[in-house]
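hiii so um. not sure if this is the right channel but i have a protein structure encoded as tokens and i wanna go backwards to a sequence. like what aa goes where. can anyone help
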């Protein structure tokens, strides 16, 4: 009880620095982020709608993709509205509760998406290596279990890390040198010993990143071995086409994670961290629907059918 009382924060509101050091960039950045955010919402919502409309897309792959789109909408909506706000207002603040809530949902979405991509890699492994048993192996029950497990693990990790941050003390002036409540920025605003929180975050990060990458890499090792053994070039081309889009999404996702958390912790790298976070929170959620849908004929035909059914009713 005494410990809880002594750990009460003296700061109830944080000041977000954002991109205030670059005033000329703020308005162009606002319009750019707003445009990307709009495309993100439309694109990912479109994937969910198209999957429900077209029976041909009622497959495990698109079941997972619809959940990936849902996560992208959620993750982008956690940070982007606040970024847009602080780009156009002078009063750049966020409450302590709001900051922790933002961090919790952002952390949960990132870790869940990490495992959702790993689950999609396993799905491609089964589709390429055991095509005849694909519908049996990837049953609806298993797909639902894999998705539920991803959400539960992401939520559990977010609860643990957020709890360790709530146990810290935050002293005035409570400045966060970021546009959102990203972990390292919150830790920098703390005036208490954050060793336990950093250790918890490190263990969870290594466990989550390592296991998701292991599942993904193992799946694609078996996929490559199977593809090499394929006698027909047609089968080879089809197998590559089904995996290329997923590999692209994984490379961008994990590449920016490594860029974000492997840069040196110095003032000169703060701008790089902010730019990488913008790419991570704004750009990736927009790219996923484009990567997965542009090369799929069924998706494009369904989109055309939906558009053609809407336009006549408006313009006739």
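sure thing!! here u go:
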């Amino acid at each position: 009880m005494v410990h809880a009382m002594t750990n009460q924060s003296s700061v109830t509101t944080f000041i977000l620095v954002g991109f205030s050091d670059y005033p000329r960039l703020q308005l162009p950045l606002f319009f750019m982020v707003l445009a990307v955010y709009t495309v993100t919402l439309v694109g990912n919502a479109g994937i969910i709608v198209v999957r429900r409309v077209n029976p041909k897309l009622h497959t495990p792959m698109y079941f997972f993709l619809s959940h990936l789109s849902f996560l992208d909408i959620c993750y982008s909506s956690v940070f982007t509205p606040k970024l847009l706000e602080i780009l156009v207002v002078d009063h750049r603040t966020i409450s302590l509760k709001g900051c922790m809530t933002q961090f919790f949902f952002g952390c949960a979405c990132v870790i869940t998406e990490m495992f959702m991509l790993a689950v999609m890699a396993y799905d491609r492994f089964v589709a390429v290596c055991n095509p005849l048993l694909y519908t049996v192996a990837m049953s609806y029950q298993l797909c639902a279990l894999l998705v539920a497990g991803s959400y539960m693990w992401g939520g559990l990790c977010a609860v643990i890390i957020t709890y360790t941050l709530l146990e810290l003390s935050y002293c005035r002036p409570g400045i966060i040198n970021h546009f959102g409540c990203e972990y390292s920025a919150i830790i920098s605003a703390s005036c208490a010993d954050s060793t336990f929180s950093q250790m918890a975050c490190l263990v969870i990060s290594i466990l989550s990143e390592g296991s998701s990458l292991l599942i993904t890499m193992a799946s694609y090792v078996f996929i490559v071995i199977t593809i090499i053994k394929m006698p027909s070039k047609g089968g080879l081309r089809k197998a590559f086409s089904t995996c290329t889009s997923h590999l692209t999404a994984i490379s961008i996702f994990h590449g920016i994670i490594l860029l974000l958390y492997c840069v040196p912790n110095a003032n000169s790298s703060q701008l790089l961290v902010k730019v990488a976070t913008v790419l991570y929170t704004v750009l990736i959620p927009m790219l996923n629907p484009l990567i997965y849908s542009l090369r799929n004929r069924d998706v494009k035909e369904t989109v055309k059918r939906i558009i053609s059914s809407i336009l006549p009713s408006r313009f006739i």
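oh and DSSP finds eleven helices and three strands in the chain.
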